[in-house]
Design goal:
The protein contains 15 helices and no strands. By secondary structure, the protein is mostly helical.
Length: 307
């Protein structure tokens, strides 16, 4: 057999394989025909399941939220705005915004560094670091607050030293901030870690090979790729910080006009049977939650398109 004959036979063999592959592909389509449904449930069952889901959401979400706003405006607009403009309420709103902003800033810094370290480097104790980041998810906020009492209270580990040096942490703004940071710091990091793992390191390596510095690479390459996930984590962190009750309740001391955040102020008003005022402040938190929900949906859609 000559080289030409062998080449001809190979070409014929390859052609036959391609034709056979083509027939196989034509015989076994990879996509289901249009109009074929993935589920096999009957129409009445699908309607029933949909109604059950909608009824559950209505009963446990829509009805309570509606009741909050109805009760808040039960005595008219004047009583509503009077409750929100009360000096104690203004102080609680101001403290809540300040604590939320500070905790978001700290968690933003920590979350980006933690996500970068976990996804870009290999080091001993990496799994332990990821576990510690998830720790606030598994600990009760009340227990978190008690930890700070044991550390900074008068009978705590640093209590006598703090008292001798005139430093006040417990039952003041520092303790509220520390407790809020503790319960909210996983949100930014846990949102960025899977996103950065999915993106890999190829783009950063290409930028570094072209002479870019590490900081320039982060600003020009990494940050644009993670911006939607970063905003999503900030949004969740801010929502949790504004609504945190358990840990803050333990370390705040419930001092009117000084250490009461909005959730604590609502509890005090409710216990004093000032129901309209309590629901007025609660409606403000509920409104913030609804705004957060809308922004969450927008950021989720942006994040899915990015992925």
């Amino acid at each position: 057999m000559t080289l030409v004959d062998a080449t001809t036979n190979r070409e014929a063999g390859f052609g036959g394989a391609e034709e056979s592959s083509g027939r196989a592909e034509r015989s076994f389509p990879t996509q289901a025909p249009r109009g074929v449904r993935a589920n096999t449930e009957s129409l009445p069952l699908r309607i029933l399941l949909t109604l059950v889901a909608l009824g559950f959401l209505t009963l446990f979400i829509v009805v309570p939220l509606t009741a909050v706003f109805v009760q808040a405006f039960s005595k008219g607009w004047f009583a509503y705005f009077s409750a929100l403009t009360d000096p104690d309420a203004i102080s609680a709103i101001r403290l809540t915004i300040l604590v939320a902003a500070a905790s978001v800033a700290v968690n933003l810094f920590f979350g980006v560094i933690a996500a970068w370290t976990i996804t870009k480097y290999r080091f001993p104790g990496k799994t332990l670091l990821v576990t510690l980041i998830d720790l606030p998810f598994s600990i009760s906020p009340v227990v978190s607050g008690l930890v700070f009492v044991l550390l900074f209270g008068l009978q705590g580990f640093f209590g006598h030293w703090l008292q001798d040096n005139g430093i006040k942490i417990l039952f003041a703004f520092p303790a509220i901030l520390l407790a809020t940071i503790f319960v909210t710091f996983p949100f930014v990091a846990r949102e960025l870690i899977p996103l950065m793992q999915e993106q890999g390191t190829s783009e950063e390596e290409a930028a570094l090979s072209l002479g870019a510095t590490g900081f320039t690479t982060f600003l020009r390459v990494t940050l644009p790729n993670i911006k939607w996930g970063l905003l999503y984590g900030i949004l969740l962190c801010n929502a949790r910080a504004m609504g945190e009750f358990g840990a803050v309740s333990v370390v705040s001391g419930h001092i009117r006009g000084e250490t009461n955040t909005m959730p604590l102020h609502i509890e005090i008003l409710y216990n004093e049977y000032q129901l309209t005022a309590a629901f007025a402040v609660a409606s403000l938190l509920a409104l913030l939650a609804l705004v957060t929900l809308v922004l969450k949906g927008v950021l989720e859609s942006k994040l899915e398109r990015k992925r």
